[in-house]
Amino acid sequence: MKIDWKYFATTPGYKSLKAAYTDSITEKNKSRSKKEYLATFHWAINRAKHYAHVKGVPIWDILDDWEAKRSMWWFGYYRDSYHRKIHSNQLQPRGLQAELKYLKGYGRYRFCPRSQRNSVLSTIRRHTPKTTLKTKPRWTKDNHKWAAQRRRQEEYRRKVKLEKNL
């Protein structure tokens, strides 16, 4: 994936990140060294590059989106807990087998057997079709006809009863 770095340097996301970085370097009460700020700046660019490669989106779109969502100090925002690496096994599973494999290996309840079992069962229920070809329908077409006739007869009886009462 080729990156046009000249264009990337003119995007609003990069400009915003660069401005936050220079503000942190030039502020009087420095809580960190310039090396730490520079390392975090490079980390943010490299992580955006990683996301762009995995998702197939240009890097400037990723960084613009991150900067638009950022509502805190840039040094705290760009860290591994907010922007984790994306591995192939972390992508959203497709189908029942993949989802079950995910739940058993990396799922939310991997350390709690009871919750994991409940999660697996609910996943299976969600993927199971409501009716299959093997099951017979509860009502046949004749049953529907008879039920409709009964409803019509009851409506007619109610009307006749109301007319008699008036």
Architecture overview:
This protein has 166 residues and is mainly α. The chain is built from eight helices and no strands. It is elongated and about 95 Å long.
List the helices and strands and how they pair.
Elements: H1 5-8, H2 12-26, H3 34-55, H4 59-69, H5 74-77, H6 95-105, H7 113-127, H8 141-165
Helix pairs in contact: 2-3, 2-4, 3-4, 6-7
Judged by helices, strands and strand pairing, the structural class is mainly alpha
| N→C terminal distance | 84 Å
- Overall residue-averaged pLDDT value: 81
Number of strand segments: 0
Largest sheet: none
Cα-atom radius of gyration: 31 Å
Work out the helicity level: 55-70%
| Beta-strand content bin | under 5%
Low-pLDDT regions: none
Number of helical elements: 8
Shape by Cα distribution:
elongated
Query: What pattern of helices and strands is seen along the backbone?
Result: HHHHHHHH
Number of structural units classed as domains: 2
Write a concise keyword list for the protein shown above:
mainly alpha; 2 domains; 8 helices; single chain; 166 residues
Q: Can you give me a brief rundown of this structure?
A:
This protein has 166 residues and is mainly α. It is 64% helix and 0% strand.
